Amino acid sequence: MKKIKNIFNETAYHYVSESGLNTYLIHRPGFKQSSAVYGTPFGALNLSQTINGETQVEHKSGLAHFLEHKLFEDDAVDVLSLFAQIGASGNAFTSYDQTMYYFNHNGPIAEPLKLLINFVSQFDISTVSVEKEKGIIVEEIKMYEQMPDMNLLMETYRNVFHNYPFIYDIAGTEESVNATTLEDLEEAYRLNYADHRMVLVIVSGESLEDIKDIVDEACKDHSKEDLNVQDVYPEEPTVVKHAHREIKGDITTPKMSYAFKFKYGQGNRLRDEFLLKIILEMNFSELNPEYQTLLDSGIFTNAFGFDVDLRDDLGVIYFFNESNEFEKFIVAIDTMMAQLNLDELLFTQLKKRYYGEMIFSLSNISRIGITFARAHFDGINYYDYLEMVNELTYEDLDSVRSYFSDVSKTSLLMTPF
């Protein structure tokens, strides 16, 4: 095992099992609580993949989510009940970029860790259970469609993107779910659930050698088929698909979004996202007196929020709001985006705040595993990410300012039925 050097007094190790599984052990001596996360970089966006640079496979939308359902709901037994029987809390989720399976436990780690590794490592799904699951997932999709905020987000994505898989819900569509076959799930599993593609993060106070022995024993019979699987994304124009649309929703006050799409170069994505969010926080929060004025006038409300997402060659800045002042909302965003205020004192204040929150998160045993796994899939050690944030300077903001100027805009207005 290789010790991971860091400035946070964390005792952490990394090693690769014989099956190719990247394993991180975060040692917390004296802690009785433990957690583990077993994840794959297969999420809702990974719809097209090549195998060994040759064969291209097209997955149905929602397939990663469907597969998560079926692995966590074993045909023979309820996995949640198995975790509960040993006093552990197990769960799973599918995001746009990953699928994660995890547990938290206040007792010895051996049983829940073996259970986690074993159920994720076994594809034991029948055609009958696939057909049964379709109705459950379709109802889940319909439930999300009835949620105004979720609907606003999805329709905003469909305003922004022409082809990029954000236009599909994480759970897919009713059509894609009903068309999913056992063979689809089996192929997706074969390509994305091999240990060399996955990561296991364990947080525990127990003996590191004992934990390593448990992992090695549980993984000894895992397939060592080392396929080179690469994700392929469709070409996506820099301009938005729709400049403006209006939709209806089961709401009382109009909801709205305004998005800015731009071309993104091959920079340090995590660093640049952080810097862009700092700039937005300086301007679109209580740190800016103009923001408070807009709140007082009802143009912005407590529902106001923003986000940034950078991908390989494009980026999007999102603004969301709920008010009766749609036109004024658009004008206010345009005005503030054209006159962004950068302040060194605010930068230092915000960086220290975010950095402190991230340091504090290291004490959250149930959260650190997922955070560490996500960082692994982003190609960085989470401790190194924290150090990178700490080393950012006010001058670094200049490297991302240009992304606010050359943009393609789209607005969406949701009004009551």
What would your notes on this structure say?
The strands form three sheets. A seven-stranded mixed sheet has the order 1-2-3-9-4-8-7, sandwiched between helices. Strands 11-15-12-14-13 form a five-stranded mixed sheet, sandwiched between helices. The chain has 14 helices and 15 strands. The model has no long low-confidence stretch (mean pLDDT 95). The chain has helices at 63-72, 79-85, 110-120, 127-145, 148-160, 174-179, 182-192, 208-219, 269-283, 289-297, 326-338, 344-361, 365-377, 382-391; strands spanning 2-3, 11-16, 22-27, 34-40, 48-51, 55-58, 88-94, 99-105, 199-204, 229-231, 244-249, 255-263, 305-310, 314-322, 408-416. The protein starts with a strand and ends with a strand.
